[in-house]
Inverse folding.
């Protein structure tokens, strides 16, 4: 599998560390109800198909990446840097 | 038998080799199989289950029978295909899976017992009495099974792995592959042409084919000459593409040094990772055997293999040969043999309407009903349109048609499609993205068709790459239609008809599996083991499927097919694991003090990837404990020096740096004054402790964070995530400076004296203070922090001066009665002081467990705060950090019980994490997690370590044993 | 028909013509007392124990492919009871006891081989963690022995004790650990369930779960609607999709675990060996193939196939630990789809829908759990109460923080 | 006050030559990491202008005289061979990395092939031309690779792992030399 890092270019999967689903980006407010934190930390759509998940280019530029890809075919549909993502960070 | 003047071997280079102790001669270019056949050796192995005599079936890597063991000692290599292994001077090959000899194998008895050893018999017996399985049945089965043997010695040979990138990867160098490569190469694309065999050309060099009116071999040589001259082409022979992986990545195995004897640094094999923009699969096709009674005798071979041996090696495998086939194409075998002057006894054609016009007898509607010859074929018996007959032959060439070599197209879950006209599976379109099959592997069997498809595939690849294809005329070659009538087994006869030669699976086994309702093709495969042998069903899958389809009354497409998985050919662990041997498995990280520690005889132990000194032995000390006790006392009494450079160091700068630390630490850093250091606790978002360490404020907007050695990388990744995901717009940047600074702990009552002599002027540094200092012209940093509980410092210096400073510090310490100390003493010192490490922060620990819940600031949010508030994360039912004190040793990993309770999981009260003998307190100490432990200080607890046979009582205490008030620390 | 050595001989004498189908191929009925979705190891054992322990025989197992087509058919066949956290400890201990009587119980030789399992450790810290584990095992009533370096050398002389990157300090030896023939376990339970009247329905994919007023009423399938008041979802590898049919979102992420088998070799590895530093484990099958594996591929996937980085990592680990296997040739690699839970421990629980039960989250430890998982799931489905040895495998433990995290890696699904 | 002697990461490793390709440790030069704060690109470039440098694009570098500014990852570049302009401090975090890295030079006809053993990058000249730089693994180590000439590369690895990097490149060269003798 190869991911195209927006900074480094196309790289082998071994350069990246996977974290998990995009859910981890949507951190609830500190006082959000327990259900929100349970969903944030644990519960997942886990689709057989297109998903968005988080990868870290730790053997490269240290970017966290938001990857859109298909879990059945392994096709990579899009890669963007988490820090530069649409909607932006806090 | 070798024919004069035939073949592509180098007759100028004779080669001497042995098989089962007998010496033979071959020529450079021979495979072991061709050389053995040239020497009239037919019996080469025994089958897996019934130990039946077996010969050479094929001329390629799909060989199921002719597997031998070569070389000796730590070079011993089992299961080598005689059809792939090239001969070289001194090659010693042995047959395997036989005892005492190949000709007389005691386990040949299994063949007689075969009625009782049918498919799946072992699931139905050997159940009683229960202990007999491990003691009797299983050892017997294990000894009988298996093929070759590993030497049990370390494989010390050289292997390598490498990367290659190209625009177009062409897999296979027959007519389709060569045409594809030539087309792509002329268009200027970077081309890799990978060929499994030592010689390029595929069937063009194995058959008597003509291209543009010339011998096929000549066209191959001409094309290769052009390709070799092009700078954008890389020709890789002896290279099997083993797997198709995502995004144009392929695995490939190159047999680098296997065709010659071992040489220094010469790899046996290289495992390639090839990344291709586009690829063309031109892997050809594999001829199918036919099933008929006793179709597995030495001397019964694939028709195409007979032609390969004839044309490539100038070898004919026998003196009187017959051919059985269900197609026209195989007849070339008989014609080529006759042209070479070899006697062809007959052609048996299974088709009723086949032509009878040949220069030898032809029998149509022929079906073989039996064969004879214990160790090699002597005759065949068959029925045909006009009756039945027996023929004395020593060789039978057979052809059941061809299966496209589509394996790679299944590696990404592609499901092949059945084509009734050729009675074979072909690749599904686009089964592997950006890969185009061409030629025989695509079900197109004529040479002209292969040229055409090869060129088309290259054009398709070039178009996808945005390149225009060259105008290249197709060579002229035979374009005969592939006339075949499916034929799978001889109907209505007794006797066993082999499908899977390597695993001894017969048509009866397949029918039995259907009878027992193992009707799914996967059930049949698993129940009979058909297709699970070293050839992975390359020779038998389609035949078995046809028999199963027949037995279940379904068609072949409805019956389905099993999945081909990588690797295409069995691939050595050593090749794919090249570089992993010994220290190569992971990088080694060395401290600047490494040599200085070794000079003092310190044993170096692994700490993650680092090597750290365990202790520094003195003359007269015989155990590590003596040294450790001395070093501990030394530090408590005078001064010790330790290299602590392995701790992670992260430089954090920016106007939002303090704010950022407040987010990642449970406690507050924005209030920390410049020039001061604070202990910080970091949680994972799930509320458990991630790491701890100190952070120093070097300036208003400048911090230096310290992590544990174990979590340095983890913390950096965590900080990067928190920053990029939640606050990318903040003015904060962090950079690892772990490697930039060597850092040494100097601790003990005389630490200040030592540093005063070093620095000249000792800065007035409060406990948890930091200051810049200079050593001559070298800038350094001095921290007043302590992991030992003593008055202590850590001094950091640019790494290039690390070794010099360490040696200097140690020399100064020794003048003061101190010296260096290692990991063992460091561990004792921190346990005495109740400091935790990753023995305690093991990933299941909460701030509450270690008594630090008050360090989770109520005034601010931090990572992990919300999850740490879950009900299960705090409370008296949790195990809490305590100290244990005893008069005899305790073991880390021991469990705790209330005295009087029975020892059982249900009464378990906790466990010990760290232990030491404390020379300071002359007691055995431990840190432990105890159920509701903070409320139990002063209690007596039972410490049970079954494994180390320790069962003692200990006193539960506060985890800080030494200088609880911190008087020494602050002195 | 009963299997025995005598039967094998008599059938052999008469051309093996008398062997009966191992199970029937019934058409689905309109209604059952209970339906189990998933004809893998866990689903089949659930059906078996529902019939055997609870007398529920009017039940069906619905399998979208062929019986045993999930992870029971593609794993490294290891059976062990070496967990240390309460919750896991008693469950796997129970499973081990069931394994030890399985052949006679099922009248099917699943080739359960208690050849012993050795977990190697490579530092003092790892030793201490394994001692804690070993003591837990013994406290639970199972077996564990601490081996020092020489003890390991005696049992596994072929390891590299000199040059390997992470020296071998010793090992935790679990004598009752071992292997079993994976397909046979599926077939044995299938045959056992069928003999007790359970309908095993293959090629029957569940496409919907019918729920009325908070109660389950049946399922929709590719072979029609089937009614049932009790439905168990036992579909590791597809848990999220099936649960989604009931409107549930599970704490599961699906990951690939690759495994490898070599060509047949004469006996050379007599135990199950696991390499603590390299995430590598190996045993040798009765047929002679070395069966081994390592870590997950680490990214969510349903592709049933892996990628090269993990292949190479596993091979490199093998080469540093036991370089004698260098010349063994890998015959086949495959990938199974693992239900990864956030703490690495499974779920056997009721759901918020009456009559709907879930058995999932086996991570990559599902094979050895097959007997106890079915046993406890059957108990739950039959009685409505959790079996005591599976009482901590609840769905809500993540929300409450009662985590069963043996690895200590936290709420990151792929790290367990 | 001690007179501390500096020691390079690969002190004691003499340059070696295999089949015409040379591996050697490069002389150390000051290295400063520059990590601009968000939105400060213009100010950073202005501060770099006196050196004749500008902040490099990913995988690139900016060079002037003996000074180089090498892209080194997300929001970071390494200034090599020059003092850091004081004006940068307001706009970027600056850390001294001089001691953190070992620099190996690999030059000669086998250089590219040797690197394409441990490095999973397309290093063909067309894909990785002279002046190109990349953060990429060297087997299991983080590294920064720069092509300095058609047949020459500079390889930076963390100082503590320099000996491992040396050993792996040495082995790659030895294997290539043995292969060259084969045919």
């Amino acid at each position: 599998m190869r991911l195209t890092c927006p900074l480094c270019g196309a790289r082998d999967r071994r350069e990246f560390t996977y974290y998990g689903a995009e859910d981890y980006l949507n951190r609830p407010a500190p006082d959000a109800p327990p259900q929100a934190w349970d969903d944030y930390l644990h519960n997942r759509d886990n689709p057989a198909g297109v998903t968005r998940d988080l990868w870290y280019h730790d053997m490269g530029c240290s970017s966290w990446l938001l990857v859109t890809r298909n879990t059945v075919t392994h096709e990579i549909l899009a890669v963007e840097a988490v820090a530069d993502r649409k909607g932006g960070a806090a | 038998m070798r024919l004069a003047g035939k073949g592509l071997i180098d007759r100028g280079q004779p080669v001497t080799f042995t098989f089962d102790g007998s010496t033979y001669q071959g020529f450079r270019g021979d495979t072991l199989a061709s050389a053995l056949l040239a020497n009239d050796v037919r019996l080469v192995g025994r089958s897996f289950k019934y130990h039946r005599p077996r010969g050479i079936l094929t001329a390629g890597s799909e060989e199921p029978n002719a597997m031998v063991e070569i070389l000796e000692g730590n070079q011993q290599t089992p299961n080598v295909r005689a059809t792939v292994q090239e001969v070289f001077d001194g090659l010693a090959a042995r047959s395997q899976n036989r005892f005492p000899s190949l000709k007389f194998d005691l386990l040949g008895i299994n063949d007689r017992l075969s009625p009782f050893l049918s498919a799946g018999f072992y699931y139905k017996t050997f159940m009683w009495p229960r202990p007999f399985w491990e003691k009797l049945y299983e050892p017997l089965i294990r000894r009988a099974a298996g093929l070759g043997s590993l030497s049990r010695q370390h494989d010390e040979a050289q292997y390598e792995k490498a990367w290659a990138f190209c625009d177009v990867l062409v897999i296979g160098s027959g007519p389709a592959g060569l045409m594809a490569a030539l087309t792509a190469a002329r268009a200027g694309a970077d081309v890799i042409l990978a060929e499994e065999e030592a010689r390029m050309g595929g069937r063009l060099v194995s058959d008597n084919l003509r291209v543009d009116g010339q011998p096929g071999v000549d066209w191959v040589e001409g094309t290769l000459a052009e390709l070799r001259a092009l700078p954008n082409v890389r020709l890789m022979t002896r290279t099997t593409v083993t797997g198709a992986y995502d995004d144009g990545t392929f695995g490939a195995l190159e047999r680098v040094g296997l065709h010659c004897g071992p040489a220094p640094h010469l790899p046996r094999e290289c495992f390639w990772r090839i990344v291709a923009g586009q690829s063309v699969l031109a892997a050809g096709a594999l001829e199918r055997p036919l099933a008929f009674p006793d179709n597995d005798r030495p001397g019964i071979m694939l028709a195409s293999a007979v032609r390969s041996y004839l044309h490539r090696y100038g070898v004919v495998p026998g003196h009187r040969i017959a051919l059985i086939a269900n197609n026209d194409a195989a007849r070339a075998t008989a014609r080529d043999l006759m042209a070479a002057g070899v006697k062809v006894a007959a052609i048996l054609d299974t088709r009723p309407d086949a032509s009878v016009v040949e220069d030898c007898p032809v029998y149509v509607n022929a079906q073989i009903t039996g064969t004879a010859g214990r160790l090699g074929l002597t005759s065949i018996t068959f029925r045909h349109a006009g009756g039945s007959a027996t023929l004395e032959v020593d060789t039978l060439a057979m052809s059941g048609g061809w299966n496209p070599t589509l394996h790679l197209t299944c590696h990404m879950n592609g499901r092949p499609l059945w084509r009734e006209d050729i009675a074979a599976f072909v690749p599904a379109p686009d089964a592997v993205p950006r890969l185009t099959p061409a030629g025989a592997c695509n079900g197109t069997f004529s040479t002209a068709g292969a040229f055409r498809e090869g060129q088309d595939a290259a054009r398709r690849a070039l178009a996808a790459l945005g390149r225009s294809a060259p105008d290249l005329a197709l060579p002229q070659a035979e374009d005969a239609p592939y006339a075949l009538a499916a034929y799978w087994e001889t109907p209505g006869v007794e006797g066993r008809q082999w499908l899977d030669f390597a695993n001894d699976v017969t048509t009866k086994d397949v029918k039995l599996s259907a009878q027992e309702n193992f009707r799914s093709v996967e059930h049949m495969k698993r129940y009979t083991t058909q297709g699970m042998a070293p050839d992975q069903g390359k020779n038998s899958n389609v035949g078995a499927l046809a028999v199963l389809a027949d037995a279940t009354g379904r068609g072949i497409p409805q019956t389905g097919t099993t999945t081909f998985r990588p690797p295409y050919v069995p691939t050595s662990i050593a090749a794919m694991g090249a570089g992993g041997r010994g220290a190569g498995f992971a990088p080694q990280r060395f401290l600047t003090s490494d040599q200085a520690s070794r000079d003092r005889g310190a044993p170096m132990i692994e700490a993650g990837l680092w090597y750290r000194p365990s202790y520094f032995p003195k003359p007269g000390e015989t155990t590590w404990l003596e040294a450790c006790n001395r070093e501990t006392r030394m530090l408590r009494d005078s001064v010790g020096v330790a290299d602590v450079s392995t701790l992670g160091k992260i430089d954090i700068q920016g106007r939002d740096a303090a704010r950022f630390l407040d987010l990642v630490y449970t406690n507050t850093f924005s209030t920390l004054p410049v020039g001061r250091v604070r202990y910080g606790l970091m949680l994972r978002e799930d509320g458990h402790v991630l790491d701890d360490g100190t952070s120093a404020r070097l300036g208003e907007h400048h911090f230096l964070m310290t992590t544990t050695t174990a979590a340095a990388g983890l913390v950096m990744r965590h900080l990067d995530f928190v920053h990029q995901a939640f606050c990318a717009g903040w003015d904060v940047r962090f950079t690892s400076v772990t490697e930039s600074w060597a850092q040494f702990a100097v601790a003990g009552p005389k630490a200040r004296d030592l540093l005063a002599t070093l620095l000249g002027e000792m800065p007035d540094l409060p406990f948890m203070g930091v200051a810049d200092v200079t050593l001559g012209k070298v800038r350094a940093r001095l921290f007043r922090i302590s992991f030992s509980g003593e008055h202590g410092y850590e001094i950091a210096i640019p790494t290039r001066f690390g070794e010099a400073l360490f040696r200097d510090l140690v020399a100064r310490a020794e003048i003061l009665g101190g010296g260096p100390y290692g990991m063992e003493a460091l561990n004792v010192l921190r346990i005495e002081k109740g400091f935790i490490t990753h023995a305690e922060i093991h990933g299941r620990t909460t701030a509450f467990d270690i008594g630090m819940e008050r360090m989770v600031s109520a005034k601010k949010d931090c990572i992990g705060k919300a999850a740490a508030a879950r009900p299960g994360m705090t409370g008296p039912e949790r195990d809490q950090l305590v100290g244990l004190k005893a008069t005899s040793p305790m073991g880390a990993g021991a469990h705790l019980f209330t005295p009087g309770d029975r020892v059982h999981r249900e009464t378990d009260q906790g466990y010990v994490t760290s232990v030491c003998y404390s020379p300071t307190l002359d007691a055995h100490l431990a840190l432990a997690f105890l159920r509701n432990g903070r409320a139990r200080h002063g209690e007596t607890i039972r410490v049970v370590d079954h494994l180390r046979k320790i069962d003692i009582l200990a006193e539960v205490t506060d985890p800080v044993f030494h200088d609880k008030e911190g008087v020494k620390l602050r002195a | 028909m009963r299997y025995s050595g005598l039967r094998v001989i008599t059938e052999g004498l008469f051309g093996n013509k008398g062997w009966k189908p191992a199970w029937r191929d019934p058409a689905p009925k309109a209604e059952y007392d209970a339906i189990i979705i998933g004809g893998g190891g866990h689903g089949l054992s659930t059906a078996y124990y529902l019939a055997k322990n609870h007398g529920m025989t009017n039940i069906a197992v619905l399998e979208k492919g062929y019986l045993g087509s999930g992870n029971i058919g593609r794993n490294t066949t290891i059976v062990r009871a070496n967990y240390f956290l309460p919750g896991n400890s008693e469950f796997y201990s129970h499973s081990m006891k069931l394994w030890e009587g399985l052949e006679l119980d099922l009248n099917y030789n699943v080739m359960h081989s208690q050849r012993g399992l050795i977990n190697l450790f490579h530092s003092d810290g790892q030793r201490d963690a394994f001692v804690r584990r070993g003591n837990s095992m013994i406290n639970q009533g199972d077996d564990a022995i601490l081996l020092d370096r020489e003890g390991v050398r005696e049992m596994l002389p072929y390891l590299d004790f000199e040059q390997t990157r992470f020296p071998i300090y010793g090992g935790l030896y679990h004598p009752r650990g071992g292997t079993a023939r994976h397909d046979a376990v599926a077939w044995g339970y299938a045959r056992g369930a069928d003999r007790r009247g359970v309908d095993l329905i293959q090629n029957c994919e569940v496409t919907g779960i019918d729920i009325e007023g908070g109660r389950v009423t049946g399922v929709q399938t590719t072979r029609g609607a089937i009614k049932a008041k009790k439905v168990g979802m036992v579909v590791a590898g597809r848990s999220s999709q099936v649960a989604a049919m009931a409107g549930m979102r599970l704490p599961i992420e699906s990951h690939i675990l690759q495994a490898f088998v070599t060509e047949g070799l004469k006996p050379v590895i007599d135990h199950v060996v696991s390499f603590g530093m390299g995430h590598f484990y190996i045993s040798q099958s009765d047929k002679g193939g070395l069966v081994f594996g390592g870590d997950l591929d680490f990214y969510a996937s349903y592709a049933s196939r892996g990628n090269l980085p993990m292949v190479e990592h596993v091979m490199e680990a093998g080469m540093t630990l036991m370089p004698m296997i260098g010349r063994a040739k890998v015959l086949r690699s495959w990938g199974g789809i693992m239900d990864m839970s956030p703490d690495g421990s499974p779920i056997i629980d009721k759901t918020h829908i009456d009559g709907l039960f879930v058995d999932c989250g086996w991570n990559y430890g599902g094979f050895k759990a097959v007997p106890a998982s079915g046993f406890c799931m059957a108990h739950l489905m039959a009685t409505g109460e959790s079996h005591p040895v599976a009482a901590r495998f609840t769905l809500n433990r993540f929300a409450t923080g009662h985590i069963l995290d043996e690895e200590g890696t936290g709420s990151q699904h792929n790290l367990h | 006050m001690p007179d501390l002697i500096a020691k390079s990461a690969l002190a004691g490793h003499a340059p070696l030559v295999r089949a015409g390709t040379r591996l050697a440790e490069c002389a150390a030069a000051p290295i400063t990491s520059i990590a601009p704060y968000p939105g400060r690109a213009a100010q950073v470039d202005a501060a770099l202008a006196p050196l004749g440098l500008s902040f490099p694009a990913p995988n690139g570098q900016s060079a002037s005289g003996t000074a180089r500014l090498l892209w080194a990852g997300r929001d970071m570049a390494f200034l090599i061979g020059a003092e850091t302009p004081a004006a940068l401090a307001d706009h970027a975090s600056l850390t001294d990395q001089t001691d953190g890295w070992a620099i190996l030079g690999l030059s000669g006809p086998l250089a590219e092939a040797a690197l394409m053993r441990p490095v999973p990058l397309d290093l063909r000249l067309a894909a990785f031309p002279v002046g190109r730089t990349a953060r990429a693994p060297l087997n299991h180590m983080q590294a920064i690779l720069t092509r300095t000439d058609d047949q020459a590369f500079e390889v930076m690895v963390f100082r503590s792992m320099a000996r491992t990097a040396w050993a792996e490149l040495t082995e790659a060269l030895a294997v290539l030399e043995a292969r060259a003798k084969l045919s």
